[in-house]
Write the structure tokens for this entry.
Amino acid sequence: MKFLYHCYGGTHSSVLAAAVHIGMLASGETPAPDRLLSLPLFDKQDGDDYGQIHYYGVDPAGNRVYVMGRRRHGAETEMILAGLHSAFAIQTGLKVVDSTPALNWSMQLGGFLSRAVGLKAIGRFLVTRGSRAAYREVVALVNEARKEVS
Amino acid sequence: MAGLFALEQTAAPGGGKTRPDSLSFLDHRHRFMYAGKDAQEREVYAVWARTDRTLFPRLIGTFCGMFDIGPEQYAVRRITLPPGSRLRLAAFCYWTGFYGLGRRLLERLEKGRSSPLPAGQR
């Protein structure tokens, strides 16, 4: 089984969900801002990188976890992935999860300021603040994805 | 356009004209469609959506990398319409969201077409 989390830029909510999924972040404890900023790909993805699927790690059950940014084309991305999976008759399962429902205004504004405008200090402050506020929702999203395939 | 061109590629030579009123896929805003097999028995698919030109090739390329599908197993071809082609207007209607108008234009063009698309437009 493979899990793919996607969001607008592939650098905030999808990375957070993937980190929770593989156990890099503990589910029951909200991570500190420094811990969030030290995560691979967190607030580091170039916006021009959208459409690229990035390997993130392996979860305790041995499933590979990936992240990607797809700008505003979430539905189209899921349609193409489902079509390709069927066209190539791939036996390995693929669970595609849109992580944007966990987003809040602080993450969106912070992500925009940090990645699009280049105001990293204020942007990262808002992104980490928002990520901490959304953490329980992200954990719930990951648990739901796990449950759906078990 | 992708759906029509994919069907053209899989149609038997001299197999007649397409009947647009039977092509329900024309009404879909985005779709991944199996069109059939071409003369070399290769499976042909069409995919279309209102995205930019970057997302599809990247997504397909990295998806195949994810599942260890080698580049010899697939080919991606973007449909481009030649300048001056009357299909461009229909394509523009689809791109801008006027699906009904685009479909009507396609139906008119298809009725007036007497032969399959020339090879250069495939």
Q: What stands out?
A: Chain A touches chain B at residues 2, 50-53, 55, 66, 68, 70-71, 73, 75-77, 79-84, 86-88, 90, 92 (CB under 8 Å). The two ends of chain A are 10 Å apart (CA to CA). Strands of chain A lie at 2-7, 53-58, 64-69, 94-98. Residues 135-149 of chain A form the longest helix (15 residues).
